[in-house]
Structures are given as C-alpha cells and as structure tokens.
Amino acid sequence: MHVLIIGAAGMVGRKFVGAISRCGMLGTQSVEKLTLVDAVEPQVPAGFEGAVTRLALDISEPSTAPQLLADRPDVIVHLAAIVSGEAEQDFDKGYSINLDGTRYLFDAVRQISLQHGYCPRLVFASSIAVFGSPMPDEIDDIFVRAPMTSYGTQKAICELLLQDYTRRGFFDGMAIRLPTICIRPGLPNKAASGFFSGILREPLAGKEAILPVPDTVSHWHASPRAAVGFLTHAATMDTGPVGHRRALTMPGILATVAEQIEALRQIAGDKAVALIRQEPDPDIIRIVSNWPRGFATERALALGFRAESSFDEIIRIHIDDEMGGKL
Amino acid sequence: MHVLIIGAAGMVGRKFVGAISRCGMLGTQSVEKLTLVDAVEPQVPAGFEGAVTRLALDISEPSTAPQLLADRPDVIVHLAAIVSGEAEQDFDKGYSINLDGTRYLFDAVRQISLQHGYCPRLVFASSIAVFGSPMPDEIDDIFVRAPMTSYGTQKAICELLLQDYTRRGFFDGMAIRLPTICIRPGLPNKAASGFFSGILREPLAGKEAILPVPDTVSHWHASPRAAVGFLTHAATMDTGPVGHRRALTMPGILATVAEQIEALRQIAGDKAVALIRQEPDPDIIRIVSNWPRGFATERALALGFRAESSFDEIIRIHIDDEMGGKL
C-alpha cells in the first residue's frame, strides 16, 4: 500500500513514519511506498525498504494537494498544522494553512473520487482544542464543539468537513483528537503546555525544570507511542461501526501535576523531583484554566483505540524510546 | 441607523423588511437607510421613508461583500442561503454560497474592522439542521453539532466562524437557529417540511392538503412574525450577557401533527380538517425521522427571545397577517 503523510517532519509525524519504516507495515498491511510531505523536507525514513518520496510543500497553495494525489495513495494521514499560539497570533496564516489547506486536500480527493471512484482512508489529526469552557469534568462525544481559539475553530471546522465528505462517499475519514503528548521528546519549548512534558523529561535527564502552575492542575495525556497507535488504528480499522460521527477524542490518562510528579518520584527518586522548581506564571495559569481536563472516551475504547493505563507507563515509554532504556 | 439585509427577497427577509418599513424602526432605533440584497432584486419596501438601495448580487463572488460594506452598515442581517435540498443536490453550489459567501462577508467586515475599528452587529440565520441523529428528545445548547446534510454542515461551520470572528472583535455576531416557520405563506412547495404549513394553510383557504407522515410526528415551530421578532432582538439586544457561545436555538412550539390538526379544528372546524388527505410518503417519513424534534431553549428565553405559546396563536397570526383577519 501507498501511504501519504502530510506533516511528516513534526514530532508525531516522525514517530509515525519511524514505526512504519521499522517493520514496513501499517498495522497488518505491508507498505510499499511512502510519500512524506511537510513545510520542510522530511528526513529519510531509516530502515524503510520501499519507495520514498520526500517533499517540501506549502499545503495552503491550491496546487499542492492535486500534486500529492497524482498516484492516488491508499491512505492519507494529515497531521500538518500551524500550532495554537501561532494561529492565534497570525489569523490569516492559521486559516490559510489549518482550514484552507485541509479543504484543498479534501476537495482534491473529491475531484478524483468523482472521476474515478477513488475512496482512500483519510486520517485527520484534530485536537481537544475544539472544546471550550464552560466544560464538564468529563467531556463526552456529544458535547458541543465550542472552541475558544482560532486553532480550535479551524480543527472543529475540518472535523465537520471530514464528516460531510465521508457521508458523501468522497473518502473514508477519521478525525482523531489527540491528548497532550507526554513525554514530548526534544528541547523545552515555549508552548503553554510544554511544562507537562518538561517537568518529567528534564529531571529524567538530570536537568532543572520549571513548573508554572499549581500541582492540582489536571490534564489529559498520552505517550508519543500511543499517538502512533491511534494513527495506525484510525488508518486501518473497520470504519463500519463508527457511523457518521467520525470525530473521536482519543483515550488518555487523566492526571494532576502532583500525580505526574509522584510517578516521577517512583521511577527516578527524590533527586529527580528536587529538580522541579515552582515558579507560578499567571499567563500560563490562565491559559490552562480554559483547557479541557477529562474526557469520557468509551466510544473510542469500544472502537479499539488504546492508550496507557498509568503515568508510570508513560514515563517508562520515554525511558525506553528516548533514553535507550536507562536513566 | 443603516441596516444591510442579505437575502432580503426570501420569505423571512421580506417579512423582516416589511416590519422595519412599516414603523421606520428596528426595535427601538430609527432606521434611516436600508440596503436590500438578494440573488434577485428585492421589492421596494412599502411605506419606508428612508433611503433604500436594492441590489441583485451573487454573494459567492468575492467582490460582492466589500461592495456591500462600502458605507459601513450598522447592522448586517445575513439570511441568504441555498436551501437544504439544493445544497444536497449541488455540492459545489451549496459550499460556494452557504460557506464561501458567508466567509467573504465575515472577512470583508474584518478588513474594515482592522483598518478602521468598525464593529457592526452581525446576525446570521442558522438552522436546526446543524443537529443530526441520534438526538435526545430535547436538544440543549451544549449538544454536539453533528449535521447529516451538507446544508447543516455549512451552517454549523458558519456558526463556528461567527464565534471566532466575534471573539476576535471583528464584529458583534449572533447566530440564531430558526425553528420551522409555520404557517409559511404562499403556494405549496416541494420542501420535505412543506406539509407542516400546507396542512393548515390550504384548509384555511378551503383547499385540499396532503399529509405524508403519521400524525404522531412532532416538530418545532414558530410563526413568521416570531422569526421577525428573533431577528429584531438579535440585531438590537445587549450581547454582553451572551458570552462567547453566540449560536442559539430559538424558542418555538413543540407540536405533533395531531396537535396541529386539533388547533385547526378549534379555529376552522371539522370542514377544514376534512380537507386534509392522508397519503403516506416513505421518502418524507424517512427524511423527517432524522430531524430534531424538541429543544431546551432556556438560554434563548433568558436572553429575551420570544415565540408563540400555543399552536392556536400560530394559526391566528396567519389569519391576521395573511388573510386580512378573517376566514
């Protein structure tokens, strides 16, 4: 099969490409060809023996999507987006890439579908930012999408488009809302959510980390490995039982910062915990207070999506996948 | 004040223009200028003494919205849309007019807002078609928008855009979801919902009407006069208490077809009821079974929106407004 991955150079994209490349499979199906696209040219996928095309393209250009679909990939995974903060700062860029770019892709698939009966699986990475306060403690799949950011608005609109295009038979779409990915590898960044990973990743590496919120703050987490699993399942599952509501919040772990820190203590000891410095940041406290906390994901679980079952597991996955298995 | 009405030639548009024209007021504010736009040139508003501009324009042309905003109307009421059946049959036309046309309008307002601090009130007529089955018996304002038509998808997307543009301060938006308007004046039409009005309007005029569904079917109704009231209130109300969730289902009357017919009997007697001929239509039965039935509209009521309190009242309004007050 031929898999097209748009947004292949991002953190989740690289992990997903890596998983396919290592075994040459997507789920139980063998992958002969990968087309990897991003705003910058994606890296060569290590170990992959099939054909690879790597492209640096702008999805907000109307000509990009038809070019990507020229040889009709069987599976399309669309991860590309301007992140929340940038979409808030640059209104035009956010709508152009996150909404228009996605619509160009959907419409390009539709054109081939109308002419040739093409109907690929299309997986769209959405976000829990489609929800906004006031919110219940557990958000279920029938709770209103009422985003409080332009990014969340763009994701919610794309979910609606995906459902309509799927209902019309132009493609077989799945929109999955990823939890906050934890532990995010790499360097500390300035995203408001960065500390959820930073307070674990940095102390595990013997470095200091800053905690800008009270440790009573709770949040919804899944590992990078779980994110790859969600994408793989969404790309290969039987969509028959999903019905017409194709946007699903992915399972995750609801944990307070205190519970995250306690898991760190169990695995890396008091010395690691001592590296976390409390430094309250009113801006981040305010932003985080508007975020969803917990979700009721029975439907995603019933459809076979799986996340970690404890925060210990999330930390151990980071040690395995990013630190060669040892502290 | 200057009021721009897009979709002024439609049934609700004509009623709204008529109400403004009769008293020269919108709510408690005097109206000096009306700009009336539709795909066909709207009629001269009878009795209006202010300035009137009437335009036949295509809102899916990018140049239309900037032209309409050249002298910065204080209130914009956007009613124009391709109806549900046509949006389902002609995918491109539906998205072009119902989504792109609305977005061109929003973006044209935004451009003037960015340059000149313009911030008009913008009222958008949305639809209960933003909801889709499975649905509870009473849909509240936190129930997911999960439309099952392209029309409903386009309306849901415009609600999301309106909320984001309002949050950003580009305009002061209100999206109101109109109930099925009953009794719709004029000739019988082929809309699947046409019979809800037809089984009352035709017998009141001494003509036969066809009932294509069982009389146990229930639906959400408001009169044309109530629709004018919703638009007027949305255009003039204090939006402070509304907060950031700017899409509201309007109040209405939940009635079964049997209850509609009983109200007809009370007002026009058995002779009128005898003009209703039962002729079940499986297509219409199927379509109607996917429609929302009842709504919990406490929030709209608390914000001052008012509909009729009985079906008798709905029939009497038709007799007053369309039949000169007598049978």
Automatic annotation (TrEMBL), chains A, B:
PANTHER family: ADP-L-GLYCERO-D-MANNO-HEPTOSE-6-EPIMERASE, NUCLEOSIDE-DIPHOSPHATE-SUGAR EPIMERASE. It holds the Pfam family Epimerase. The keyword NADP applies. Gene3D superfamilies: NAD(P)-binding Rossmann-like Domain, UDP-galactose 4-epimerase, domain 1. InterPro entries: DenD (IPR050005), Epimerase_deHydtase (IPR001509), NAD(P)-bd_dom_sf (IPR036291). SUPFAM superfamilies: NAD(P)-binding Rossmann-fold domains. Transmembrane segments: none annotated. The keyword NADP applies. Residues 3-207 form the NAD-dependent epimerase/dehydratase domain. Keywords: Carbohydrate metabolism, NADP. It comes from the Bacteria. This is SDR family oxidoreductase.
